[in-house]
Amino acid sequence: MSTRHPTLATPFAERANQATHPLTNYLFRLMELKRSNLCLSADVQSARQLLDLAEKAGPAIVVFKTHYDLISGWDYNPQIGTGAKLAVLARKHGFLIFEDRKFVDIGKTVQMQYTAGTARIIEWAHITNANIDAGKDMVRALAEAAAKWKERINYEVKTSVTVGTPVSEHFDDAEEPSEDGRRLDPREQNGGFYRDGRDADGRKGSIVSITTVTQSFEPVDSPRLSKNMTEGDEVLFPGIEEPPSDRGLLLLAQMSSRGCLMTKEYTQACVEVAREHKSFVMGFVSQESLNTEPEDNFIHMTPGCKLPPQGEGENGHVEGDGLGQQYNTPSKLINVCGVDIVIVGRGITTAMDPQKEAERYQREAWRAYLRRVGQ
Ligand code: 6AU
User: Fold this and answer.
1) How much is the pLDDT for 170?
2) How far apart, in whole angstroms, are the C-alpha atoms of residue 38 and residue 284?
């Protein structure tokens, strides 16, 4: 760990002013406002449990971390699905969404995994992360995808509908992909009927008109994640504006697991890549602060965090999980190792009362931060 890098003694409010990434600036201000440097790792089984946890723990946290691929019943609908619902809760309680996707592949593949496919991570996750074993071009590829997406999101799809009488050449049997690339059931394009006018049961239907949908892009100002969701969508966490539409990346620089194969050279390469992509890379998932150059102001988020059971004192020993995970207390990680945000999963999710436990972690982690900056 760097010895007393200036960021270790600098309050988050000041680091916000120095931040080059708009989302890092926002996150530091949110942390001061909520007096929280806690990220909840919501590794639960179902989408219902996930949303319930976000609703309950939302007030205590600043980042909500997901692994969308371990959630059963994840609804991929971009407007009303799980990501969009999470975005509504993020607006209401004031937290950022971090999809812990750990991208690692060639540039083109990670671009597609990030922006397209089933989950369309970029649509609902403010932050994601990457393992840079595949090389630094992958980070550039993700940065370019995020920049392109941001450019596009500032234009809202305007839909206009016209109705007319069908002509025979409209009824060709080839399936066409929808706007989002999905193969459409021919009935989806034809009001519930197959193209020869039969419905699914083989009955003839009579077609009196055909609807044409035209889409164009118009500029919009709002950076909100999900533009089409209305129910409860207007509730905005007080005291701060909506987060910017910029996306952020954390580099997986060190891991909490026993026997981790990431070398010092790998970690150093992460730091160098981060410095090259300051407008996209916010910082690191790491076990210690990696800020060493005077102008470094990266944010550090750290998993492998647990408090000893109540009554054992904040520095008591915490056992690993028997599957390689190792734990440290918030006090050690924040004060000694110099990290900014602790990532807590099972310490909260398996508690009898996850809401109260999240509040206890929030208090402990914030107290450790205040001690570190001498407040
Ligand atoms: O608190 P836990 O042990 O229940 O959960 C820790 C969470 C899990 C891991 O996938 C993740 O943190 N994690 C990561 C991340 C965030 O990338 C890196 C790491 O080194 N260790 C780790 O546990 O969702």
Assistant:
1) 38
2) 15
φ/ψ of residue 56, rounded to 5: -75, -45
Mean pLDDT of the chain: 86
- Looking at residue 243, the DSSP 8-state letter turns out to be P
**Distance between CA atoms of residues 134 and 113, nearest Å:** 15
Cβ atoms within 10 Å of 211's Cβ, excluding its own = 12
Known catalytic membership, residue 100: yes
Ligand 1: nearest atom to the Cα of 129? 17
Q: Which one is catalytic: 105, 136, 150, 356?
A: 105
Is 69 a catalytic site residue?
no
Model confidence pLDDT, tens digit, residues 266-291: 999 999 999 999 999 999 999 999 99
Tokens of 339: 């990290």
Question: Of all atoms in ligand 1, which is nearest to the CA of residue 98?
Answer: 16
Count other C-beta atoms under 10 Å from residue 30's C-beta. 21
- Between CA 99 and CA 39 the distance in angstroms is 12
Is the C-beta atom of 198 inside 6 A of ligand 1? no
Q: For the segment 229-241, what is each residue's pLDDT rounded down to a tens digit?
A: 555 566 899 999 9
Kindly list the distances between the CA atom of residue 334 and the CA atoms of 14, 120, 288, 330, 344, in Å, as whole numbers in the listed order.
18, 33, 8, 6, 13
Q: How far apart are CA 23 and CA 126, in angstroms?
A: 8
Structure-block tokens of residue 299: 């944010």
CA distance 238 to 115: 30
- The pTM of the full predicted model, rounded to 2 decimals, is 0.84
